[in-house]
Amino acid sequence: MTTTSGKLTEPSSSFSWIIDIFSRYKIPFFLLMPICLASIVPELIIAGATSQFIDSYLINNRLNFAVPISWVLLISSILIISLFAFQMLILRRLENLFIRRVSVTVFTQLFRLPFHFFLSNQPAEASARLALGMQIGQMAVSKLLAFCLSILRAFTILFFTLLISVKLTVVSLLILVVNLLVTAQITQRREGENRKLAMVQALADGIGTSGISTIESIKASALENEFFNKWSDKFSVGVNGQQIQSLYVAFTAVVGDVSTFATQAAIVIIGGFLILDGSLTLGSLIAFQFLLGSVVAPLGNISDFANTIQQLTGLSGRVSDVIANDKDPRVQSFSTNESQPQPRLIGRIEGKNIHYRFPEAEDPIFSGLNFNIPAGTHLAIVGGSGSGKSTFLKMIAGFYSNNQGSLLYDGKPWEEIPDLQLRTSMTYVAQDVFLFRATIFENVTLWDPRFDQIDAYKALCDANLRQEIDSYPDGVNRMLRDNGSDLSGGQKQRIEIARALIRDPSIILMDEATSALDDRTEAEVLSVIKSKERTLITVAHRMLSAQLSDQVIVLERGEIVQRGHPKELEEVPGYYLNLLLSEDSRVK
Ligand SMILES: Nc1ncnc2c1ncn2[C@@H]1O[C@H](COP(=O)(O)OP(=O)(O)OP(=O)(O)O)[C@@H](O)[C@H]1O
Ligand SMILES: [Mg+2]
């Protein structure tokens, strides 16, 4: 289940969503049961025919039995194979439908979760959930459902083995039960070990990944050996644990083999005595052995079944966590049919008595913020580190919802504006740039087919990258390495700005998005952005963007402590002037 913040706690064991999805496919379900039961008929006929073949043809020399029995065996075999193939086809189809539905549901639900979910879950963990549909589908259909069908067959056939010989059936079942009890004991012990092993392996993986992603610090400080020791501590525990696990697995296999051998021996010995005292024929004994295979095999898999249920519980919890989590009511892009381009918002933003508290925090970060950003103006938010600047911007971008008060765009709350209209009117440029291993063109357009190379080139020029693009032999088709590792920090930021500009938004939110640019380039980029009628909100540590703005808000511990035109604020003692003076003294 989840907390309101979206944080994962104990995974929910609820299978109800699985049942809910299965209940949509009643027809395949309806077909599976009769097919499974029908496949028992040819199996019984084969057992009976084999028994007759031995008793009548081989022992009593009734030669006229040979041809009809062979025909019966042939037809029954074809029938049983056809029914099994049909059952398999239905199971595959069901699995396919199930996987598709779960995957689409998880994807759409995951992308509708509030921003907080992604803050409290690691990206790799959250994105791994997208593949859960495949794993769960295979487990639920190929393993569990197929197992349930084989158990249904097993119990029906058991009834017929009892008709052949109660004694043989009871002895075989007793051996099977002993086998199951021993295996269950071993599995139970393994369970704890398995969990510990998974944790240690995940830790070793995590250490490895964090090492690779902080390779710069490791190389710069010659920490390779220390890092190796840290990683190998965990990794070697994992390797040892794996070896112990292998021992358990080998022991379980031996127990299984011994039990099969004991069953066979018991049937031959007890069956032999039953034949001698005339209560069983040789043909019936062979028929019994033939049928027993279909009983013992599925029953012997019960411990596997228990294991699968356990794994499925964990996986299903991670899906139900996504499904049950509160959705962000503002994300409507999956449920609306807004295919037509929407007119842009004008870009007036107003906040009235805004309160906001992070779900895990005790105190609110904002308690009654009021602000008004006229359309087409530039607001600069300044303030010390941790004063709430990024939070302010993210709230306007819709990542966080204010707990109280109203945040209005062109005079309306978010929920009253068509989703596509609002989100195409606004772009958010973060400080941490993410670039794909793709061409510059693809990184700027993000594969949006509405834009061509000329649009991308124009946006890149507006973001002050003309010189660079012109110097590349492939121009905008230059391929970038992972996360643009072959570009400078400032070039990456300008590509991200181009990504925002190509969409021609009426509101641009920039969180330290020009921090890696020199003053001249920053001023040029800002002037291009402002050359169009746009609302611009910038957060920057450097004061240049504030000096170029129309309105400055100074934040201190989530409170607006000063606001006004930069020229006015420069004239009066206060926070803004202090920030300006401290930057000047740093420069000197
Ligand atoms: N997801 C979060 N959960 C809880 N508290 C948070 C979260 N994000 C930020 N905070 C807290 O909110 C406060 C404001 O953070 P914010 O990132 O808005 O500061 P900032 O002004 O942008 O700082 P900086 O200039 O260093 O980027 C900080 O005290 C921070 O610890
Ligand atoms: Mg910040």
Strand composition percent? 5-15%
Radius of gyration: 35 Å
- Tally the helices: what do you get? 22
What compounds sit in this structure?
Answer: adenosine-5'-triphosphate, magnesium ion
Distance between the termini: 55 Å
Quaternary form: single chain
Q: Report mean pLDDT, rounded to a whole number.
A: 87
What can be said about the biggest beta sheet? Answer: 6 strands, mixed
Query: If strands are numbered along the chain, what order do they take across the biggest sheet?
Result: 6-7-8-3-9-10
Number of strands: 10
- Label the overall shape: elongated
Helix/strand/pairing class, anyone?
alpha/beta
Q: Helical percent range?
A: 55-70%
Low-confidence parts, pLDDT < 50 over ≥5 residues? 1-13
Description:
- The chain has 22 helices and 10 strands.
- The chain is an alpha/beta fold and 588 residues long.
- The strands form 2 sheets. The chain has a 6-stranded mixed sheet, with helices on both faces. A 4-stranded antiparallel sheet has the order 2-1-4-5, with no helix packed on it.
- The relative contact order is 0.09.
- Bound molecules: adenosine-5'-triphosphate (ATP) and magnesium ion (MG).
- The site of adenosine-5'-triphosphate (ATP) has 13 residues, from α13.
Question: What's the structural blueprint in terms of helices and strands?
Answer:
Layout: H1 16-22, H2 26-38, H3 40-59, H4 66-111, H5 115-120, H6 123-128, H7 132-164, H8 166-213, H9 215-220, H10 224-276, H11 282-300, H12 302-324, E1 349-356, E2 366-373, E3 378-383, H13 389-396, E4 404-409, E5 412-413, H14 419-425, E6 426-429, H15 440-445, H16 453-462, H17 466-471, H18 489-501, E7 507-511, H19 519-530, E8 535-539, H20 544-547, E9 551-556, E10 559-564, H21 566-571, H22 575-587
Helix pairs in contact: 2-4, 2-7, 3-4, 3-11, 4-7, 7-8, 7-11, 7-12, 8-10, 8-11, 10-11, 16-18
The structure holds adenosine-5'-triphosphate and magnesium ion.
